[in-house]
Every structure is written in structure tokens, then in C-alpha cells.
Design brief:
- With 447 residues, the chain is an alpha/beta fold.
- The protein is globular, with a radius of gyration of 21 Å.
- It has 8 helices and 23 strands.
- It is 20% helix and 37% strand.
- The strands form 3 sheets. Strands 3, 6, 7, 9, 10, 12, 14, 16, 18, 20 and 22 form an 11-stranded mixed β-sheet that branches. The protein has a 10-stranded mixed β-sheet with strand order 5-4-8-11-13-15-17-19-21-23, with helices on one face.
């Protein structure tokens, strides 16, 4: 018999500083005059106060302890930190190419570093704070209605501090050809550890098509806490491809929740590449409508004392839905990774086709992986499978390469890269796939 614990179980003590910060700042948050937004923030604040920080008694957090995060006295990031300038920012574009891009520094939008170049008519791309002030009707329909804070404590915390972030709305039947890049820079402060809570809203209206690439990087030396929430709505017959690379610094804490609703006959791709942060957790929850398709995949590479948690839930709510997950990880030194993947087939969701796979490569005797694949099926005409494996580099393959004059570290890199290639193949757009392969090569070369 399996015993699960209520997600309400949590440690309330660490919440106090965040609640006090909220009470000081709430009157100055963007859109404070909007009653629906004030109510939404209060709901988030109250729910976070009730839930607290997760303890190991919370099943979803069984393998990831937030004690290191709780011990740091984070202060809210200030817009003043956004005055920094950068010579180079990450991109998946070829040298010399330009295109639509939003840049955020410690959670605050930087209009001077951003551009809407290359966007067709019928597309809104901008900062959330500005949109709440000038065009709140563009976000009111979906904001806070896809990512629910009832049982998601860090969604609740993000909702309480909801202030800035990215907004993309692609109109009905509009196709955006160039990828839209969202760059989140964690700069931090030398004076005190800083926390920020960006909210991303992506809306692809019926029959539209777009590609979004998120970059999360750390350029400072101090500790940062990035608590990201993305709400994604893919309308009937629409296609949205959503890619993310997280390469924050060694003192960073990165918690991310992505909540997705995929409409009838729509398609959603999600791919997350994780190489950075002291502690990172990427949680993706997807709800599929009739005939909808989603690919939720990724790769994670950690070393040193890093901890990386990938948690996914795919809910098939209507018939003829298709989902595919392929995650592959490389874990070195004393690092630890967690994979928790669940596919839920609701009653009536007949003809569902769901596939899930997680494979991990342990590169040292002290590396660890905790895997928890799950299928929860309440329909009888479905095709679902899951699998999870962990292993080491094959001695025979390593010997073969070294026997041909390839140095040991280079040979290891070739084998690790080949192992991760299956996950990279889940990215259908060649320029983006090649850019992500470059990020992998950079991680391997940094050894």
C-alpha cells in the first residue's frame, strides 16, 4: 500500500520574511488599482501563508530538500539593479541575425535591450508591468487561471509578488516565423541575496503558430532566488514550440512552474536544458484537450554539489490525445538529479497515446538519481508506456575510443554527447537544436 501525504503539509516558519515583504510592497506593485489583480495577489499570499515551504512529507518534494534555500535571507530585487549593461546576451540566432527579444534583469523588463523586430501584425509582445498598466485586458482572461496556486506553493508565492515578466499574445491565424527570445538575467547584489518572481504569459490563439526560446543565465556572483511561473494557452489548432535553457550561476536557486492548456487539435512542444544553479527544479504541468498533442522533453547535466529536479504531469482529459516525453541526464561528482513524471488518463479520454522515457548517466561513484515514473489510467482503450534507467559509461566504448588515440576526457565527452543526442533530437527546429547542442558542448568543455 502506498501512503501519500497532503500537499498542505509544510514548514510555515520560512514564510514569514516573504509575507512581511509582500505587506510592505503590495501597494506599489504594478496594476495595484485593478481590483481583480489585488484579489489575485491576496489569494496567492494567503495560500502561501497556509501551505508554507514543502517538507519531505510532501510527496512531490520527497527527493528535493529546500533547507539550503530556507537558510538564505533573500531580499526583493530592486529595479535599480536593472541599470546594468551587457556586451553579449545569449541567443539561438546565427551571427548577425536579429529578431524579437525581451530582456529581463533580476525580474525587471529592460525595454532598452529589447526589440519587437520581425513581428507581424496581430502579435503583442511586451513586459507584464507595462501591459498591466496600459492594456490589462490583454492578460486578464488568462493571468492566474492556468497556473493555479491552490496546491502549488511557489505558484502562490509568485502570484503574491506578481509584478513583471513577459507577455506574448499571437492573434488568431497569425504565424510568427522567427523565434521569440526571452532572456532572464540573474545579476544579484553584492550587498544581499536577492529574490524575484517573474510571470510569463504565452497565448497562442486558434490556428496560430509561434516559437519561444527562454534563456536563464547568471552574470553576478551573489546568491539569487528566481521563482518563475509560466502560463501557456494553446488555442484550437494552434502550434506553440517552447524551449528553455537554464545556465544560472553556482549560488543560484531556480524554481520554475510551467502550466499549459492545449486546446482541441493543438500542438505544444516543451524542451528544457538544465546545466546551471545550485538547486534547480523545473515543473511542467500540461492539460490536453481532444486530439491535442504535446512533446515535453529535456536534458539535464549537473556536477559538483548541484541538485536538479525535473517534475512533469501530463493530463489527458479528452479522447485522441498524444503525449511524448524523453528526458536524458548526465550526473557527475556529488551531484544529484530527480525525475518525477506522471501521465494521467482521465475517464473518457479513450484512444490516448502516451509515452514517457527517462535515462540517466552516472559519471561518478557518488552521483545520484531518483526516478519516479507513473501512469494513472482511468480509461480502457489507451496505449501508454513509461521507462526509467540509470547506468554508467560503457568501458568497452571508452576503451575503443582511447585505443584510437583519443584522450580520456575527450572520449568521455564524445560518449556523453552521443548519449544526450536522443533528447536533442526532440527539438525539430534545426537552428535551435544546433544552438542547444552548443550549450551541451560548452558544459562538457568546462570540465
Amino acid at each position: 500500500m502506498t501512503v501519500t501525504h497532503s500537499p498542505r503539509t509544510g514548514d510555515l516558519a520560512p514564510t514569514k520574511p516573504y509575507l512581511e515583504q509582500y505587506d510592505r510592497l503590495k501597494a506599489d506593485l504594478p496594476g495595484a488599482a485593478l481590483s481583480w489583480l489585488r484579489d489575485l495577489r491576496e489569494q496567492g499570499r494567503n495560500r502561501f501563508a497556509e501551505l508554507g515551504f514543502p517538507t519531505p512529507k510532501v510527496e512531490a518534494w520527497k527527493y528535493t530538500s529546500l533547507r539550503p534555500l530556507e537558510k538564505v535571507a533573500f531580499q526583493p530585487a530592486k529595479p535599480a539593479a536593472a541599470g546594468a549593461h551587457f556586451d553579449v546576451l545569449p541567443t539561438v540566432r546565427a551571427a548577425g541575425e536579429t529578431g524579437p527579444r525581451l530582456v529581463f534583469v533580476d525580474g525587471y523588463f529592460r525595454a532598452d535591450l529589447s526589440s519587437a523586430a520581425g513581428l507581424p501584425a496581430g502579435v503583442h509582445l511586451g513586459g507584464l508591468a507595462e501591459t498591466l498598466t496600459k492594456n490589462p485586458e490583454l492578460v486578464g482572461e488568462h493571468l492566474g487561471r492556468i497556473a493555479m496556486s491552490d496546491e502549488q506553493r511557489f505558484v502562490a508565492l509568485n502570484t503574491a509578488f506578481l509584478a513583471d515578466g513577459a507577455v506574448l499574445r499571437v492573434g488568431r491565424g497569425v504565424e510568427v516565423v522567427p523565434p521569440i527570445e526571452l532572456v532572464f538575467v540573474s545579476l544579484g547584489s553584492d550587498d544581499a541575496p536577492t529574490a524575484f518572481h517573474p510571470r510569463t504569459l504565452l497565448v497562442a490563439e486558434p490556428q496560430s503558430k509561434a516559437t519561444v526560446v527562454e534563456h536563464h543565465i547568471g552574470l553576478g556572483t551573489g546568491a539569487t532566488f528566481a521563482n518563475h511561473v509560466a502560463e501557456v494557452f494553446v488555442g484550437e489548432g494552434a502550434t506553440l514550440r517552447h524551449y528553455k535553457v537554464q545556465r544560472e550561476g553556482g549560488e543560484a536557486f531556480h524554481l520554475s512552474n510551467t502550466a499549459v492548456r492545449v486546446g482541441k487539435d493543438a500542438h505544444y512542444d516543451n524542451f528544457i536544458l538544465t546545466t546551471g544553479a545550485r538547486l534547480a527544479r523545473n515543473e511542467v504541468r500540461t492539460t490536453l484537450g481532444q486530439g491535442a498533442t504535446c512533446h515535453v522533453s529535456g536534458a539535464y547535466m549537473v556536477r559538483g554539489q548541484q541538485h536538479c529536479d525535473t517534475t512533469t504531469v501530463i493530463e489527458h482529459c479528452e479522447p485522441h490525445g498524444t503525449s511524448r516525453e524523453v528526458y536524458k541526464g548526465a550526473i557527475d561528482d556529488h551531484a544529484r538529479a530527480v525525475f518525477q513524471g506522471k501521465i494521467v488518463v482521465h475517464p473518457g479520454a479513450q484512444k490516448t497515446d502516451g509515452h514517457q522515457l527517462n535515462r540517466a548517466l552516472l559519471l561518478s561513484d557518488t552521483a545520484e538519481i531518483d526516478a519516479k515514473p507513473e501512469l494513472e489510467i482511468y480509461a480502457d482503450d489507451v496505449k501508454c508506456s513509461h521507462g526509467a534507467t540509470a547506468g554508467e559509461l560503457a568501458d568497452e566504448a571508452l576503451f575503443y575510443l582511447r585505443a584510437r588515440g583519443i584522450p580520456k576526457e575527450e572520449a568521455r565527452g564524445l560518449l556523453i554527447g552521443a548519449f544526450l543526442a536522443e533528447a536533442m533530437d526532440e527539438i525539430p527546429e534545426e537552428p535551435i537544436r544546433e544552438a542547444f547542442q552548443g550549450f551541451v558542448a560548452g558544459w562538457l568543455a568546462a570540465r
